[in-house]
Amino acid sequence: MQLIEVTPRDGYVWFRQGLWLFRKNPLTFLMLLFIYLMALQLAIFIPLIGIIAALVLNPGLFVGIMTACRDVIQNRRVSPAILVSAFRTSNKPAISGLLKLGGLYAVAVFALSLIVGSLVDLRELMPVLMREAEPSAETAGILYRALLVGALLYIPVAMSFWFAPLLVAWHGVTPIKAIFFSWIACWRNRGAFVTYGIIFGILMVAIPFILEAFFRSIGAGEFMSFIVTPYSLAMLTILYCSFYATYRGCFNVKPAAESNSDDTQTPNPDVF
After folding, report:
1. Neighbours of 117 (CB within 10 A)
2. CB within 8 Å of 13: residues ≥ 6 apart
3. Closest CA to 26 of 238, 253, 261, 188
4. Contacts of 211 by beta carbon, 8 Å cutoff, 6+ apart
5. What confidence score (pLDDT) does residue 180 get?
6. Closest by Cα among 8, 5, 6 to 192
7. Which end of the chain has fewer CB atoms at under 10 Å, N or C?
8. pLDDT tens-digit series, residues 85-138
């Protein structure tokens, strides 16, 4: 397996490819993401066990979404069952590796949560998070500080697990090596990932914030969700589609199922 080192501009190319993939079959991707998010939401309602299960199974579900991206490119029919396709394979080492990877991911997330909790007084935020009280200037500052600290601490976790599920499921790499290779791939292509992150930061954070401020300024806050919610869902779906673009952009190997595909022969940067 050979790593490809790309330029910062490729971060924009990944966004364009994610957008192209979303436009190729938007209803399928919206359906899959809705099911995926609902499953995670339902898991949260089960105290502790549900959260742990969601974290452990997340790498396998991520592989399911990436498999859908691969199949849509090849014009194959995609059903909701593809979300759990990584756990239905006869490749038992891959299933075991994904579960181990999920366990490591759960440990990393809980460790991160403990660190953030030690730096920020979450008890002051609970009434705001539970919508039991309006945020004051002080609690808003605490909330933004918690989000900033959490985001900064999550960056190395994201780098370590970005490509790891696909390396385990599609290429037979052990979980520890997959985490290492994922980190190296992200670090060596950090310029492209910075560009990629800025683009989606603008699309998913800045624009919804501006839209919300605009609707509130004209006294139409009640109509805000009718525009911001569908927009945010579409952007999140495009983000997931672009995850596959980052994989194809950083590694020159393809799963065996793609070996006969000719989708890489076009010079169009929107197409894989």
Report:
1. 13
2. 245, 249, 269
3. 238
4. 224, 227, 228, 231
5. 97
6. 8
7. N
8. 999 887 899 999 999 999 999 999 999 988 887 776 666 665 655 555 555 566
Cα 245 to Cα 33: distance, rounded to the nearest angstrom: 17
State yes or no: pLDDT of 265 exceeds 50.
Answer: no
Q: What token pair was written down for 219?
A: 């006294």
Tell me: the pLDDT tens digits for 6-25? 999 999 999 999 999 999 99
Phi, psi of 149 (to 5 degrees): -60, -45
